[in-house]
Specification:
Four copies of one chain form a homotetramer. Chain A is about 30% helix and about 20% strand. In chain A, the strands form three sheets. In chain A, strands 13-12-11-10-9-8-7-14 form an eight-stranded parallel β-sheet. In chain A, strands 2-3-1-4 form a four-stranded antiparallel β-sheet. Chain A starts with a strand and ends with a helix.
Chain lengths: ~325, ~325, ~325, ~325
């Protein structure tokens, strides 16, 4: 951590600051520039509150040098993490497809889609029972029954299943679900993250709509800190000034995260752009950008989907999209 | 709701769409332009999923005409709502000051600040017991004990109290707290909003960092829909490309919200900008922009505050800032 | 264009509005909903000012149905435009590589890089003579001499050349340059766009940092309207809240633009992310997302590059990146 | 400037870097932390390219400590700059109103509005002759004739005049205009800034839609560096995800700029929000936030304004808004 002082700091306040820092068990390296003095804090600064120091009258600004996340940090854990979900795995060089309808609607719907997803060698079957929408008047899904239908369809097809959990009180309903999805709205719902961390099960953690890369990794850190290493990060769109898509898919965060963390990273292009026509191109782009996998919304009858209808691929497009993603992923792995 | 069709739509699909819409109990007004056909949907469209329709091959785009929020909508409830908190009230022409430290640290701290806050005629005393930070390693506050100290300090000073609730499991600890604050991270934690709605107590609902005005009102709608009309909206900064402040205070939303909703609206400049030096100017600006009140972080010893130290006003600046805000508020109310 | 009226509009004002609209040669389709009345304006509304109408007391909002760009619009020009630059072409199914150093530094530098670029089958050689930086104290390039060195290097290598023009007064210096680049800062410098339009030469038009897709197409329209159809659009990063990259590469705009315009679209990942380590992944992602080509900064001695040093690929990485992009492009074109 | 090295840097590369830095006339303070080494560069680093250093394999990141603007920097010029425009002045404790129609339409229009503006004690009369719109098909104003009408109306009313200049070629037409306005689109049109700097006349420099505070000050630096100290900065809205206003007025930049620069700062709420209904509240908020003045669009017949019709205040609202702004400004100046 670096503390940049204002010009000509009051000596008494400076002495007090230095005593305070040393009281935290840190050493100080003082560098006197021509116009500014800089204090370098040496030691473990992860528990120092930068706000505290920047509030001082003599301080111009404070900058962290070390990243505040530890367990998610590639520096301290260089090898890629591979997350196992049933027989499937995410990370470690493969390309995992997680697919299903946005929400579970019926036994027939799930069986049809599960068979299709299985046919395309997808890794995980998805579908939400507890549907969350901005409006209190919107469709809320089949709730517990939806989760049961998903689990059943997964068993029949021989696929592990994933579903979004919105609240700790739903944990019991998820007992046979193989992987939790945490929605973008809940990326900083730390009570939920802690509770999920304690289950030890794999967790897909979506990036919040205005979360920085560091904030996403700090949320992962909440889970890892509970002793659960099975975290998959998911870029699913940030809020920007663009209105031609629902959110803006930020593919740059894929290679960026790969530099900073050992956790697998996947993308959800449909959730980001909100429109099926853009999904095939963006899914392939995610594969090229280094994603460890992709989330795809697929429906045998998109027109009658009960949620997020516009995001679903039709079966034929789904098959082609999966094939393209895998081909691009292979292409990127080949020696040039 | 308006459905704009692509040029030369397939007649069969168009007929199917028209049947589907009529099946929802809506009438249709069809307008044939020179290059495009538009369907106007007449009736209550609040439960129609725009995604469903925009997913159709023959549809170019879908636009809502009616606002999707009902109970928060000024059109259906023209008179300003006044929210009562203990003896204080927010909305209805006055200017309410809600103030306290970011977090409760000790009995002495709370007593000193409560006296100061009372002296300035503030309406509500605040302070968090359950402190939420991005890092799992950060200070988490005094928890239940913090809430008790807040409640006690409020009683001694004769002030109602507000504190941020992060999770339903904390409800019991908040039984003597007069007003709940919902943090920006929780603006779309609908389970929490529903549970708080059911308490009937006043709720301060902070805008999420990337929430639109409509999304904020839809979250208020979740609370109102539980039969609880006591919602105060709070602008506390949006995420923009600016890095010179922590978030960007969006004061335009104050007059904008006043046009669309009857609920009181206040601002939290310190939480938005993150730096005490900017707070006095922005607090006065919020008063000028039409805020029904203001949230201010104040501390008798900011340097040793345990959370958000850099956001706190010192007592002298706090007094002046409150006086300025009230003077500006009066100035705005006077006939020109 | 659709005009949505406020509830219970004043009849006199409504009559005045209807007369005004009809005076513009438009027909009106009036649709009376249960709570709102909507006017559909039928005819060529491209010259109607939406501000004018939305300013009226009786109007709630105004929405365009037709896109305001005509010559850039795929609806009126379904076939892909192919832009020819010397012997190379951009658009029409191929994948064009435009490459060179950010700025021209010397004859030796340009010869070395030109040979490398030629060896990789790039389409166009680039390099700026007039360097534009945020600081008036920064290096401004070799100016006219830089352009001469670029032209000469292009001739020797047998490659057409592109360079960024910042001002009309530089036109004379660009007489032997094959393609103009317009920088993001100049996307809405309409005087410059008109002047370049009149030259008839190919133009690479970069998207402004906060330009919408529509604004970009309206800027293209300025050029097309001068009778110059040779416009290539370029996504080079938008400003978002992300700080881990210089700008945020918005690849979604590639498939989105392809739906709306017939003009070729390329991407500049290095300019967007600002860091060479992310470029290979993002370049391949752009190819997968449907780019007609890519701009790459390459330098034989990046450490001593005089501008944008951190964005340059080293020769070996450049070669691999070009090969990957072309392989991904081929992969996307294959039948599934 | 601080250079943060990656862990275990290659010694040879480190020696080369140190030699390179010393070759630029800078001293180095090396600080060895437990996990990272930091180089503090001591001396004038304003001409060092941070990109150059961050491109090195051994460097993790580079951070500036000194601000890159010099002439605009309050540290080197503590006293507030006052800009004189005719008999009026902007900055120095007063509150200047700059007002007029968005565009000049006729002699009668300008005379009516000028009289109104004069009556309200405004400092400067505005109005554009060269109108710039996103569409090549939109109204472009009366051009030179518009400027003449503005100048004439100013003379009659005894008011200095301001108008937006879009291009150097218009300079001759502006010879009797007292103050240049530079539009948001042109904030980084450095050729224009240099040319205007050389005129020595007062310049209103609008912030670009996605410009940071530093970028705005660097653009001011371009003008100041030509020997022209008469720069007034203007916040007129940034692009954010908000769509309920045209742009988002960022009032926090007012007190922020006041900390960093001695130049006067004003706000243009109508240009930011795009809708007259929000202007009175936001104008007063700008005054409270510390603006040295305000730009207001006013029209005697807004419905028939030829440009930006929806942004204009009607005469009565204009008068009240000016009065409120001045009252709030006075209120802020009083001792608490």
């Amino acid at each position: 951590m670096i503390v940049i002082l204002k010009p000509n700091p009051d000596q008494e306040q400076l002495d007090a600051l230095i005593r305070w820092i040393k009281g935290k068990g840190l050493d100080i390296d003082k560098s006197e520039g021509t116009s500014q003095t800089i204090l370098g804090l040496i030691g473990d600064t992860s528990k120092i509150d930068t706000d505290l120091i920047s509030a001082l009258d003599i301080v111009s600004s404070v900058r962290r040098v070390q990243e505040p996340y530890k367990k998610a940090n590639r520096n301290f854990h260089p090898a890629d993490t591979v997350v196992h979900v049933g027989n499937a795995c995410i990370g470690g060089g493969g390309f995992a497809v997680l697919a299903g309808p946005a929400c579970v609607e019926s036994k027939e719907q799930m069986e049809g889609i599960a068979a299709l997803v299985k046919e395309c060698d997808a890794a995980v079957l998805g579908g939400d029972g507890f549907v969350t929408r901005n409006s209190p008047y919107a469709y809320r899904g089949l709730q517990e029954e939806g989760i049961s239908l998903l689990v059943e369809a997964g068993k029949t097809a021989g696929l592990p299943v994933i579903s979004e959990i919105g609240h700790i009180s739903q944990l019991e309903a998820f007992k046979d679900v193989d992987m939790f999805a945490v929605g973008a709205r809940n990326m900083q719902n730390y009570e939920l993250l802690r509770a999920l961390g304690q289950t030890g099960k794999p967790i897909l953690l979506r990036r919040g709509r205005s979360a920085t890369a560091e904030e996403l990794l700090m949320s992962a850190e909440y889970i890892l800190n509970e002793g659960n290493p099975n975290v998959v990060l998911c870029e699913s769109g940030i809020r920007s000034f663009n209105t031609y898509t629902k959110y803006t898919l930020d593919l740059s965060i894929l290679p960026e995260l790969k530099l900073h963390t050992h956790l697998p990273v996947i993308a959800d292009p449909a959730e980001a752009c909100g429109h099926y026509e853009l999904v095939p191109a963006l899914a392939a782009a995610a594969a090229a950008a280094g994603a460890d996998g992709i989330l795809l919304d697929v429906h045998t009858d998109p027109m009658n989907a009960k949620s997020a209808a516009g995001q679903h691929l039709k079966p034929e497009t789904f098959k082609k999209t999966v094939a393209k993603c895998k081909a691009v992923h292979e292409c990127m792995k080949k020696e040039a």
